[in-house]
Amino acid sequence: xxxxxxxxxxxxxxxxxxxxxxxxxxxxxxxxxxxxxxxxxxxxxxxxxxxxxxxxxxxxxxxxxxxxxxxxxxxxxxxxxxxxxxxxxxxxxxxxxxxxxxxxxxxxxxxxxxxxxxxxxxxxxxxxxxxxxxxxxxxxxxxxxxxxxxxxxxxxxxxxxxxxxxxxxxxxxxxxxxxxxxxxxxxxxxxxxxxxxxxxxxxxxxxxxxxxxxxxxxxxxxxxxxxxxxxxxxxxxxxxxxxxxxxxxxxxxxxxxxxxxxxxxxxxxxxxxxxxxxxxxxxxxxxxxxxxxxxxxxxxxxxxxxxxxxxxxxxxxxxxxxxxxxxxxxxxxxxxxxxxxxxxxxxxxxxxxxxxxxxxxxxxxxxxxxxxxxxxxxxxxxxxxxxxxxxxxxxxxxxxxxxxxxxxxxxxxxxxxxxxxxxxxxxxxxxxxxxxxxxxxxxxxxxxxxxxxxxxxxxxxxxxxxxxxxxxxxxxxxxxxxxxxxxxxxxxxxxxxxxxxxxxxxxxxxxxxxxxxxxxxxxxxxxxxxxxxxxxxxxxxxxxxxxxxxxxxxxxxxxxxxxxxxxxxxxxxxxxxxxxxxxxxxxxxxxxxxxxxxxxxxxxxxxxxxxxxxxxxxxxxxxxxxxxxxxxxxxxxxxxxxxxxxxxxxxxxxxxxxxxxxxxxxxxxxxxxxxxxxxxxxxxxxxxxxxxxxxxxxxxxxxxxxx
Length: 707
Hints:
- By secondary structure, the chain is α+β, with helices and mostly antiparallel strands.
- Helix content is 19%, strand content 33%.
- An 8-stranded mixed beta sheet has the order 32-33-35-34-36-37-38-39, with helices on both faces. Strands 5, 6, 7, 8 and 9 form a 5-stranded antiparallel beta sheet that branches. Strands 1-2-3-4 form a 4-stranded antiparallel beta sheet.
- Strand 6 and strand 7 (169-175) form a beta hairpin.
């Protein structure tokens, strides 16, 4: 990326640290006297891991013996290991880079090829880094987490590696030309969240855990240092320090596509959804006069762009929420708050932008238009912003897959539920053309997609997609899987169903994707209407979709199951504890579940901007009525939930799922629990484990909903 102006909120979503959870009451939250299972919050204690092993054996015994298990696992593994799936790439000065995992390389290969070779049916790849070989040589459970390189050449990079799949990483300097780690190069071997940014070949900005006083209360980095080659990191000069109460805080560079640095900025994420930005001018930090829910967005043609999630009133004009705003870069550097501002783009009804990518000369913005994808190209020509729509298929999910920082090359992804994904390429001067297509993994010829609306408890219309066999009888007998997310302004969009199509749809199941408030399908307002004191609206929307599907005869409670992960796991937890009679199965993946202790578990304290803080009595009153863990009560019949977690998950933490399963067991009701001991928040590190977990879940659904 030529520009490192990434929203602190987006970064914070992925930046979490492991820590020892206090096994005590705090600020009025439940302690051991009220909660018998706080000991499960110690991720790797002997007692907790003994419990995990026993639960894993129990679940394998209940589900892996099903005659369908091995067949389903084999079907999933064949898709994950498929050699003809699209090898998505990044565009770099020295070629196209891809990270590839398969049966022979479960930890993966970082590899590169040329554009000409990539366009062929049989690209020839050069291995840059073999993560499996590195892990074996060092006796570590290395998981590759990406790199950050020095522009414009991008030869020197810092490779991020995680031990076992945690979000926390170590960083090592790597030479892409020699395909080797730099001898006596930069190394940050203390695992931490945070990262680096190159200033020049011998200097970088570093935002990490430097010890006492350098982390926020949420245990994210709050300081930034300038580190010079050959000097200890402990001696590096601190140039920025946020507040301990921040979620996260850091400084970074404003850099254009040529690699030229135009200045230094910093931010303080005062909550998950609110950020203060600062510009360094004449050696002083000047706070930018902009809304807390606005952020820098790009640098194109000498114009600095900003995005705002709320109305922005400035200089006698109002820029609407979700708009793009620009200022002249030189005017900004001279007067950061006084430079004139110009509207670049504002959304129409049911439109929202989803992200942006820079090439050397243009800005490409991915939009949702009534949950359908579009891409707009923006250029600043003769003092005026000019936009044009990229010619891509209609009625699909589209977006920028890769963009070159040093040319006008760009690649686009196109997908929907039933059509294998395609990759389009353009050099910037011609219309995009298809250069790669994913193989078909299931028979979609007899399937159809429909979109409906459910009416939520407050009358709001909530859309959802239904994927089903054509001519499916609307008699309530259809095994149906309902899923969604509904949080953090993240949209859930139609995408090729792949393994779900093969394992679930081909076996006669129906699939529903909900677009609840709290997500990002219709812009920041759709999200902000269902956070904090209004978070119950997300759960109401999901329940309304279930009720609507039943009322239409798509399915019935005996045949309806729900599934979701992370925030989606909380969504599923609230649904089956509030309305257990609506469902006969619930897969609760890597969830938030105990919402009264969540600020003390994993890095939950960073998410109070989404849910509120149960340590504050007024806000606890929002949360306690829906916290799934506390809603597991005697006298209710729950739909035998299947909890799934990861031991190395240092984001939501396995304690949530563990405690949920333990509580259901205490109630004497059916449940299932499985914990992946080798992956982090994103799941297992190898395809074999991923396939096993998916097979367990699908067998569970078939037994509950179809048999």
